Amino acid sequence: MRIGRIGTLVVLVGLVVIARPAQAGLPRVLIIGDSISIGYTKPVQQMLAGEAEVVHNPGNAAHTWNGLEKIDQWLGADHWDVIHFNWGLHDLKYMKDGKMDLAGQRVSALDQYKTNLQKLVSRLEKTGAKLIWASTTPIPEGAGGRKKGEEIEFNAAAAEIMARHKITVNDLHGRVMPLLDRYQQPRNVHFTPEGSEFLALQVGQFIREALPARNSPVEAARGVIQRLLPQQVERFVLELIPQDNGRDVFEIESRDGKTVLRGNNGVSICSALNWYLKYHCFCHVSWSGSQLNLPDPLPVVPQKIRQVSPHRYRYWLNFCAFSYAMAFWDWPHWENHIDWMALHGINAPLAVVGEEATWQAVGRRFGLTDEQIREFLPGPAYLPFGWMGCLDGWGGPLPQDWIDRHVELQKKILARQRELGMTPILQGFTGHVPVGLKQKYPQAKFQKVADWCDFPGTTFVDPADPLFVEFGKSFVEEQTRQFGTDHLYASDTFIEMSPPSSEPAFLASMGKAVYEAMRSADPQAIWVMQGWIFHNNPKFWQPPQARALFGTVPDDRIVLLEMGGDYWKTTEAYYGKPWVWTLIQDFGDKVSLHGDLRHILARLGEPLGSPKAGKFSGLGAIMEGLGYNPVVYDLLTDLIWRSEMPQLEPWVMDFAHRRYGRQSPCAEKAWKLLLESAYTTSASTNELLCARPSLNAGLNWTKLEPPFDRRILARADEQLLACAGELGALDTYQFDVVNVTRNTMAGAAHKFYKDIIAAHEAGDREKLTAAGKELLDLIRGIDELLATRPEFLLGRWLADAKRWATSDDERKLYEWNARNQITLWGPRDSVLHEYARKQWSGMLTGFYLPRWEMFLKRLDQSLADKQKFDADAFERDVRAWEEKWTHGTEEHPTAPTGDPVAIARKLWDKYGKLVLELK
């Protein structure tokens, strides 16, 4: 066969093509090796499709003598980014008269093998490629022409050479050794097809981690600046510096008229930029309005600033956020949010987009039909609740196009996060499986957990059954093939369901099985677990139960996420495991003005430096949505780069300065009042408008009465509106005015509702009508206010959902998912109704207003007929109406309209005196 350019070689093993045409723009990878490597090259190519051009040397690389003869030919004149190589099995052959024979002579003595390998390594180093050495795979008993175990000595010699040259070692020998009975052919050095797939997973991951990032850390950070400040990017100089004793660090200084930003990775460089913007330019970046009026010229930094983060992990996101806020995001949404994360120092984001493809692949691998998998996968608005084991199938069936396109979206997300220096946290296996698996494995032991919120209990593999680890291992392997791994896996076993047994032995077996399922696929696996079980079910999770669950996992192989409380104090700092303090915020991503800022400083300040805090390792946020309170996340992420807690009121005044780009006594007064009211509580507030109407209206999961004096919030709103003359044109001010006025005016609903109930009880139809009109007018007025800001539009949520559709049926499914989640959250009689309610324009007049109109009409009719109000009949009818609404297709505006300040002022003029007098 004529040999031409390496990138276009076609190498045949039987009829299998293992080289591919060169793919423009992709990193180039050369695999050098014998028939073992030929066996794993094709699945590696499939694994890295779209990420790298992977080719194998022509034919069999055989022994090191052959390598020395042909290495220049294999390398050619082309550039290689990564070379994964091995020689050994052929050097270990015993030959006599041209045939393999143990009575003959070994191809290479150990010393000669070392000499040859040293020469080959020296030649490979000249390519400038990232080199990866693969240890020689095991020689079993009875493999003709080779002696069992001799590869161990060769591997040791090779390891010494690689260590001297600082070459990465992929220990395939150690990885596959415990699994030879499963993956290696009997009395043969070769592997079964499944064995080659297993080796490919290890090889592919090593190559993936060695690939050059699409952008260097500096280029990645520059991309963030380009998107954020396209007119200013040339005014910044970006430089890399090393970590500070293993901690992330950034520096800022002025040089030759430019601002120099340094960091040990892209996140640190971006954090330097944000620190400079906040504390030198008095700017503010958020998803709820941004203020980027940079001074010209840029402010000079008097002396170099150096900030070192005391926190190893800066965690971000809750599984629920991928439902309530991000269910229908596309790449532009994600790109903008990843930029925000980088600017704010986040380095450990939960990343579970596209997991439905992993489940589909694993299900097929275990013999499940596509129909059984469809019955398991929830719809797009409910996918995270499937991942957490809460429910199966609700909101589906999930279209294949959705699955395929979200694989590509996840790859983009992960590539950007990784090039910035983040370590994304992928999903781990919890034991939750499709119920169809019971049919395929009737001898296996399964558990059915209790119902969750009236959804039928889901199926779990018993942790004592070998199927648990086998299925979990396959899950991590398939996920790694699709998305790679950074070795962090989120697994929240029984997150809101009591385990079937409280026996410590059972719980220990569960902890061991969850970890072993990860570790068996990834020896570097670290289990990341939310501490929500301690909040949700504290009676169950007593010390013996908690110790049992965690105790079987090595201390450095698990990270516990403390969720806003002090459970580290009652668990002996999580029994010696690393833990991260995180804030719980924005349940259901409700539209609410709230956030307990003092709680953040108190809870985070205490473990810093405390000898009782054990392995306190970081901070973060586990929020169910992104929320509408930028001050909360600005405070939390500001603490990433601080070793001491700031004084709250001065910090908030500085925040107001940044938020509006200037010092404003008027705005400072408003924010001091907000600090005394809305920002004293973590509970959502003033949401009577969203309650399902009744004579005793209430809301699931929320008290209607705010835990602070409404009059203080009203004074804050009044003061904020007084700033309109100086701040009215600012995007950030307009958002704040709409948000604060919305929350303040919604308080008036309590007065009108009480008037309605009093009028009904008195039998006064005239007063009932008057009070009802006041309530309905208030709803319309707040809807008009919310219509002025893009963050508060129902139309945007529905449009984002429908954008994913490729057919009319898909459009209807996605829109129904979007509507159902924010209203019923399940079937007609769901106990979760209104959990993810939204005070949005379109929701107020399109959903909540008609319900109140129905209620008022029924009340009036009962008085006219002199009959008792039939609450049960109304409840049935309103639930039927709600269900019908979820299937609606009426259009809603996707762009804001109206002047937010003028409409807020109009509402204040109408209702201001009333809300100032509320008790």
Radius of gyration: 31 Å
- Helix run count: 36
Strand order of the largest sheet: 16-15-25-24-23-22-21-17
How many structural domains in the coordinates?
4
CATH A-level architecture of the largest domain:
Alpha-Beta Barrel
> Helical percent range?
40-55%
Biggest sheet statistics: 8 strands, parallel
CATH topology of the largest domain: TIM Barrel
> What integer is the average pLDDT?
93
Features:
single chain, alpha/beta, Rossmann fold, Chitobiase, domain 2, TIM Barrel, 8-stranded parallel sheet, 36 helices, disordered N terminus
Description:
There is one protein chain. This protein has 919 residues and is an alpha/beta fold. The protein folds into four domains: 6-210, Rossmann fold, CATH 3.40.50.1110; 217-308, Chitobiase/beta-hexosaminidase domain 2-like (Chitobiase, domain 2, 2-Layer Sandwich), CATH 3.30.379; 313-646, TIM Barrel (Alpha-Beta Barrel), CATH 3.20.20; 674-916, Up-down Bundle (Four Helix Bundle (Hemerythrin (Met), subunit A)), CATH 1.20.120.670. The protein is built from 36 helices and 25 strands. The strands form six sheets. It has an eight-stranded parallel beta sheet. Strands 4-3-5-9-10 form a five-stranded parallel beta sheet, sandwiched between helices. Strand 6 (94-96) and strand 7 form a beta hairpin. The longest helix has 22 residues, at 765-786. The chain is globular and about 115 Å long. The termini are far apart. The model is unreliable at 1-21 (pLDDT under 50).
